[in-house]
Amino acid sequence: MKTFKKRGQTPIFYFMIAALMLTGVQGAWAQMPGSPAPQLPSSPSAVEKRSIRVQGQASMSVEPDIAMLTLGVETQSDTAAKAQGQLADRASKVLAALTGAGIDRAKIKTSYYRVSPVYSTKQDKQNVIIGYKAETTIQVEISDIPAMAGLVDLTMNAGANAVRSLNFDRKNMEAFKAQLIEAACKDAQLKAQAALRGLAGNGAGLRLGAPISVDVQDSFSARNAGEAMMFKAAASPDFVSAGELEISVAVAVEFEILVNSSH
Length: 263
Hints:
The chain is α+β, with helices and mostly antiparallel strands. Among the domains are: 51-62 and 174-221 and 246-259, no CATH class; 66-169, Alpha-Beta Plaits. The chain is built from 4 helices and 7 strands; from the N terminus they run H-E-E-H-E-E-H-E-H-E-E. Helix 2 runs antiparallel to helix 3 (148-158). It is elongated and about 90 Å long. Keywords: Signal.
């Protein structure tokens, strides 16, 4: 009579069975009522940071070294072609006067051009065309501000009808703004430190940490910068004051608030 043996039932097999049974018992014990739930360590990023947000400001006045002059040239005639021809003649004379005064041609440009009908102003003829008007503006960048008054006289005599606008600027304005941004950030830091000192009386034990965010808002305004002058050909200014340019910068900075360990 033959005897058959079951293959594969080695000691390793029985060891695996025992390990699985033990794991099952431990899992059941963990789910029993009253057993404590596992606790995960809290992440530092999940802790809400304390912060303070303040505004800082800084401003300064600088002397302008560039003037942007916009001249108006206008003609009127009974036909559009004549008005345009007269305008071209006047504008060319103004350009010649500017270049003759030493203005670089690259600093001169035409920024506006228009031809439009002129209607009668009489009540019974309001829709009647009585002529055509041609107009253009010539914009000039001038570095010699003291010579502005004489230059306006020169262009008026050459054919310009009016000064449409006169604005002043500074070549290296960005360098000044960079200085103001730094000063405004320091101002914000001083304000934040002062606020925490004011809270120190209640035993808060607070101190200022590193900046979290910075928002920069810069603005530019000109004081006494020669408001737009509307002069007829015979009435140009004998003196032009550039005044000063006031640059102001504002920043909003958020700082982290640290709490002293003793509190």
